[in-house]
Amino acid sequence: MHPFTYTRVADIRGALNAGRAGGRYIAGGTTLVDLMRETVERPGTLVDISGLPLDEVTVTERGGLRIGALVTMAEAAAHSKVRTLYPVVSQALELSASAQLRNMATIGGNIMQRTRCTYFRDVTADCNKREPGSGCAAREGVNRTHAILGTSDACVATHPSDVAVAFAALEARVHLLGPDGNRQVPFADFLLRPGTTPQREQAIRRGELITAVEIPALPRPLRSGYLKVRDRQSYEFALTSAAIALHVRGGVIREAKVAAGGVGTVPWKLPAVERHLVGERPSESLWAAAAEKAASGAHPLQQNGFKVELLKRTVERQLRIVGGTK
């Protein structure tokens, strides 16, 4: 670990001043400290924001949900409003990491976490995300767990977050506060595909602070859930996952929100699946036909072609679980 300075701020203004000066924000530290220990990250200054008043879960005026950036994963998963209004979020959180990490890690830190690609974390390997222009060792290396959607010549690393998949499906927005004031960014635009600049992973400006993630109000009744497929049943990242929310009224699907994880360089929204569902009646044949569209545009690598079929099966299975049949 390289030397750094540490400062703890007592208010939002102090945090913004420190961030504008180049400090890196830290709260739970469950990702950043690991990367510092491995010398992947080398911040000169850490700004501890854990004492800021950003740790509440509130229902918005329109009936959506606002989760403060410093709410821990465990707190968000257990919150009665999260479990009642958006069980897909609580399920995604409970299937993430270990209980100990969920007690420390925050919602803001979770969506800012960096990839678990082994080449990114190995400072002796070529990685455009860590060192732009050096190459991507994963493309010709061990790439079984890597992305099949949203990849580029520069990077094929997956995004590791589970709850980010739920946020993407629900079309959440990220609230940011910085030197230029408040702004909101649609979740689909907050996490960036690698393209030719894989080192730039979030649409966040220098000195900006995540203050909350807001889930919009969706029609009721709303059925939702999260399914994670992995090599082992605990403490493992997804090979594929599916976050699904369905509004069914009068026996017809009126609205569908679907996203996948473990397969994309960012949480992957599935609009073709959504379009196939809306206006139809739940049935086994509908789930199968919609799921066939889940892997559209996939570009598998030498070792991860199995993810194409696994993604379809994961989406179909979760559609059956959430939507049922008549």
Automatic annotation (TrEMBL):
> Keywords for this entry?
Oxidoreductase
Concerning SUPFAM superfamilies, the annotation shows: CO dehydrogenase flavoprotein C-terminal domain-like, FAD-binding/transporter-associated domain-like
Q: Where is the FAD-binding PCMH-type domain?
A: 1-220
One Pfam family matching this protein: FAD_binding_5
Q: Which domain of life does this protein belong to?
A: Bacteria
Record-linked PANTHER family? OXIDOREDUCTASE, XANTHINE DEHYDROGENASE SUBUNIT C-RELATED
Q: Mind telling me what this protein is named? A: FAD-binding molybdopterin dehydrogenase
> Which species does this protein come from?
Streptomyces graminofaciens
